[in-house]
Amino acid sequence: MSDSPKKATIVKESWDEPLPNETKTKTQTSAGSTSNAGRATDDAVDDSEDLPDDFAEVQKTISGERRRRQSKHIKGIQDLLSFPFSPNIRPLTISDLESCIGLEDAAFANPAHRCSREKFEYRLGVCPELCLGVFCTVIPGKAKGFEINTLRTAHPVETGRKDGAVSVMMAHIISTRSNEELVTDQAMDYPRDFKTREPNTAGLGHQETGRTICIHSLAVDPKLQGCGMGKLIMKAYLQQVKNSNLADRLSLIAQGYLVNYYKRFGFKHVGPSKASFGGGGWHDMTFELGGSPPKQND
Ligand SMILES: CC(C)(COP(=O)(O)OP(=O)(O)OC[C@H]1O[C@@H](n2cnc3c(N)ncnc32)[C@H](O)[C@@H]1OP(=O)(O)O)[C@@H](O)C(=O)NCCC(=O)NCCS
Hints:
- Residues 87-290 form the N-acetyltransferase domain.
- The protein has helices at residues 53-69, 77-80, 97-107, 117-126, 185-188, 229-244, 259-263, and strands at 26-28, 34-35, 88-91, 132-138, 155-156, 166-178, 212-220, 249-254, 268-272, 283-288.
- It is of the alpha+beta class.
- Strands 1, 2, 3, 4, 5, 6, 7, 8, 9 and 10 form a 10-stranded mixed beta sheet that branches.
């Protein structure tokens, strides 16, 4: 939750309409299986001249948006990459720990707003099914000029693959469950003895039976920001949670400059948050999946 606003855009439109790529991008469910309503893409690099269909869809979306807004700042993801962008969206595991840390460090300018290594260990250990990542296969030798933190921590796509292809994390969402409707400092925290004590009786961190999914971190690598990556992962996440019936709502705390960003996904602005995490100044935002929405102040 960086304190350095990159965009102060006043945004009025919503993103209620589905992204053309949202059903075509390969998405693994929380159970770990792969669902793909479109073509069966691998995040392996396609060496052919033709770009994958889902990439073309992403491009169309981004180009359309770009034309509509005549924005000089929003670049297509592919414009930034020297290899085909074929996103693989999947739940995270503890093996993604180092990539999550690298991405978080790069994305959040304010260290106080970052999720610590221990918190990542806790969250990826206790509820990995609530955490999602966007990955893309990269052949290091062919990824000229592509230098992001998570390239260094990427895992090989297959053991022994000759081209050395690795699956690189580009964005992540990290969440836990809570019994409260809004994100509290207790939910943002974690039990210090989580490695030795089961179950969690401290009242801190993840509450297994909670019906609120608290999003603690949405992060896109800075080199890839502003070209739809945040929208891609958030829409995939919302779709997955809606389909799973595993919660009543999603809640998060956001700095003021991102309130409009989350509103466009359908989050409601509840008001100033009581959470003092990282120095405070947060706004409560919530996305009701059913039932009556909480009172809003705007
Ligand atoms: C905030 C963040 C996740 C957004 O991801 P992103 O990939 O850069 O954003 P996207 O490209 O998906 O943005 C899509 C749209 O949101 C708009 N947008 C971006 N930042 C915005 C902001 N602060 N307020 C309003 N709209 C914003 C873009 O203009 C774009 O609009 P368009 O689709 O109409 O052209 C990313 O910038 C990031 O990781 N920041 C650092 C970490 C952070 O602050 N995370 C959030 C708090 S947990």
